[in-house]
Write a structure and sequence with these properties.
The complex is a heterodimer of chains A (about 325) and B (about 300). By secondary structure, chain A is an all-alpha fold. Helix content of chain A is about 80%, strand content about 0%. Chain A has two domains: about 1-85, no CATH class; about 95-324, MetI-like fold. Chain A contains 13 helices and two strands, in the order H-H-H-H-E-E-H-H-H-H-H-H-H-H-H. In chain A, helix 1 (about 1-30) packs antiparallel against helix 12 (about 285-315), helix 9 (about 220-225) packs across helix 10 and helix 11 (about 275-285) runs antiparallel to helix 12. The two termini of chain A are about 15 Å apart. Chain B is mainly alpha-helical. Chain B has helices spanning about 5-15, 20-25, 35-50, 50-55, 85-120, 125-140, 140-155, 155-185, 185-195, 200-235, 245-255, 260-285. In chain B, helix 5 (about 85-120) runs parallel beside helix 12 (about 260-285). Chain B is elongated. The chains are: A mainly alpha (about 325), B mainly alpha (about 300). At the A-B interface, helix 1, helix 6, helix 7, helix 8 and helix 9 of A face helix 6, helix 7, helix 10, helix 11 and helix 12 of B.
Chain lengths: ~325, ~300
């Protein structure tokens, strides 16, 4: 078990290296640099520009810059944000919390709604119910989250006046801890729901496919032949076995949701990583953009490793199969 | 698994030869109602995109005095905050959306077939390396990859399409790879190999026709994903500034949500309908001939 864990973690490190390298190459393809971006059209002398570049360490040849960046990443230093006058890592971590709240809330919604509905679709004896759920989930999967978010604002905030539209809490609001939590919950509801819709649809389809696979397996046939009641078979044999593959998918959807949260955060002014990424792109704050991609990749990998470990603990067959 | 499941149930049960590729091709089924609607919608939007200069009532960039006016006979879907006709913008918007979507579908299909095919057929270290490379792309959310590329390199439709392809290709590569991996040792491939068929013929005429179907399904889904990514990028203001796009319309509509529903609602419906159509088509393609019999 321990050696399996070590191998699993050793597998992760080259991937992180790959992500860092790839993003570094991408970001360095940009025409212009932070110096030209901050100075703009102001007529600056070539000497001054060269001096600034030397100060920032971006006058060196590409391979040197790359190796230096790698060395710093290994030490947990993701560089300095010139727009925010702050180190990148603490800056990203500051914004990580808000995004995590959003993503975790949306994941919870997706699982709590998606799994039962998917099971229902797979086990129902009425083809119309199955078809309806399937079509609805296809529709939910196709609606752009940011438009859904806009429509949510239009209906629940503007027309009905039920929910706030901007930010993570009411500015200047001071109440007890419970009051503040309630305030944040109200702000969280719309963005989390918007983010959860396509994820719920994915969950339904995954559960349905997984449960259909289980229903076709031999042990269900055995249970039926034994004369076990239908409800008991579904609850004891089908549900449990359908859940496992669905849990593994959660690891991968985490990344997708962080991607989706860029748009949702933009609509709601949610102060998370998505907003930070958007602002940094606008300001050409390269080190922050790089830092965010690296942090998101590392977290996605961690979530994957954790789901794998949980999965491996539960099911030894999987443990054998994932060793490559 | 969708609506047309019932039609072939008996057929599959009594058709043991269904697994052979040549038999499979002959079984063409009538598409379901939903699939037909999706196909019609795709054709309609494609026509709108192709004939945009002929059918759009106004120049999508023409500013006018009519600011934020509701739908009327002069402006079917009203006007936006600077008096541009929204219907015309949506008609032109179909161009960008379809271009990026179809480019994403075809592009990741081609890359997927090449990379996945090599990885699956050659196997071993080559397979391992290519798949790790694909994985690096998969760890990064597609939206982030596309966003960084467009933000860094520049804003035009071709680049958006490229960025979307780069973000989406690993999935189809994985699918093609697993197909090749399974088929490489299939009996009919072995038979071909034993009878002295050259490798390129095996790949092109034995494995490829079978592996193409699941890759095609993925390509259809990738069209939808590509359209969503394009809309998202335009919504963030990273779209091509010289064309009008659905996401771009929504970006400018956000401040006027409460004043002008015609500004924000139709554009979103266009995106959703187009993406849905391609997803329905992909779903229908994917469900052809996969029905197991189950006990419960």
């Amino acid at each position: 078990m321990l050696s399996w864990l070590v191998r699993r973690l050793a597998y992760v490190i080259p991937l992180i290296w790959g992500v860092v390298t790839l993003t570094f190459i991408l970001v360095s393809l940009a025409p212009g640099d932070i110096v030209t971006a901050t100075i703009g059209d102001y007529p600056a002398s070539e000497e001054y520009l060269a001096q600034r570049r030397a100060e920032l360490g971006i006058d060196e040849p590409f391979p040197i810059q790359y190796l230096k960046y790698l060395a710093r990443v290994v030490q947990g230093d993701l560089g300095f944000s010139f727009a925010n006058r702050q180190s990148v890592l603490p800056l990203v971590i500051d914004h990580l919390g808000a995004t995590l709240i959003l993503v975790v809330a949306a994941t919870l919604l997706a699982v709590l709604i998606g799994f039962p509905v998917g099971m229902w679709a797979a086990t129902t004896r009425f083809r119309t119910i199955d078809t309806t759920i399937n079509v609805l989930s296809l529709i939910a999967f196709s609606i752009p989250t940011f438009w859904l978010a806009l429509m949510g604002v239009l209906v629940f905030a503007i027309n009905l006046g039920l929910l706030p539209t901007q930010g993570i809490n009411t500015i200047g609001y001071s109440g007890d801890t419970f009051g503040q939590a309630w305030d944040m919950f109200q702000h969280l509801l719309l963005p989390a729901a918007a983010l959860a819709v396509p994820e719920t649809a994915l969950m339904i389809r995954m559960t349905r496919a997984s449960a259909n696979g289980v229903l076709n397996s031999g042990f269900v046939l055995t249970a039926v032949s034994k004369g076990l009641p239908r409800r008991q078979i579904i609850r004891r044999h089908v549900t449990r076995n359908s859940l496992l593959p669905v849990v593994t998918v959660l690891g991968y959807t985490f990344g997708t949701m962080v991607g989706g949260s860029v748009l949702v955060e933009k609509v709601f002014g949610w102060p998370g990583m998505g907003s930070l990424l958007y602002d940094s792109v606008q300001r050409r704050d390269t080190s922050v953009v790089l830092g965010i991609v690296v942090v998101v990749a590392v977290i996605t990998l961690l979530v994957n490793v954790i789901t794998d470990i949980v999965y491996g603990l539960v099911d030894p067959k999987v443990r054998e199969a994932t060793i490559r | 698994m969708t609506i047309d499941q019932g039609i072939t149930k008996e057929q599959d049960a009594t058709d043991p030869g269904a697994a052979q590729p040549d038999r499979r091709q002959r079984r063409w089924r009538r598409p379901s109602v939903l699939t037909t609607i999706a196909l019609v919608l795709v054709v309609l939007f494609a026509l709108a995109a192709l004939l945009a200069p002929l059918i759009s009532p106004y120049d999508p960039f023409a500013i006018s005095e009519a600011i934020l006016e509701g739908p009327s006979s002069a402006h079917l879907l009203g006007t936006d905050d600077v008096g541009k006709d929204i219907a015309s913008q949506l008609i032109y918007g179909a161009r960008v959306s379809l271009f990026v979507g179809i480019a994403a579908g075809l592009g990741s299909l081609v890359i997927g077939l090449i990379v996945g095919g090599i990885a699956g057929y050659v196997g071993g270290a080559v397979d391992n390396m290519l798949m790790r490379f694909a994985e690096v792309f998969q760890i990064m959310p597609a939206m982030l990859v596309a966003l960084v590329i467009v933000a860094v390199i520049g804003r035009n439709s071709t680049l958006t399409a490229l960025a979307v392809i780069i973000a989406l290709w690993p999935q189809s590569a994985r699918i093609v790879r697993s197909q090749f991996l399974n088929l490489r040792t299939a009996e009919f491939v072995d038979a071909a190999r034993i009878s002295g068929t050259p490798a390129w013929r095996i790949i092109a005429f034995e494995i490829f026709p079978v592996a193409f179907a699941p890759a095609g399904v993925q390509a259809s889904l990738d069209v939808g994903r590509g359209m969503l990514l394009e809309a998202g990028l335009s919504f963030l203001g990273l779209g091509d500034p010289t064309t009008s796009s659905w996401g771009g319309v929504l970006r400018r509509a956000q401040p006027y949500l409460s004043d002008a529903w015609w500004f924000s609602v139709p554009a979103g419906i266009c995106i959703a309908l187009m993406v849905l159509s391609f997803n329905v088509i992909g779903d229908a393609l994917g469900n052809r001939g996969n029905n197991g019999r189950r006990a419960l």
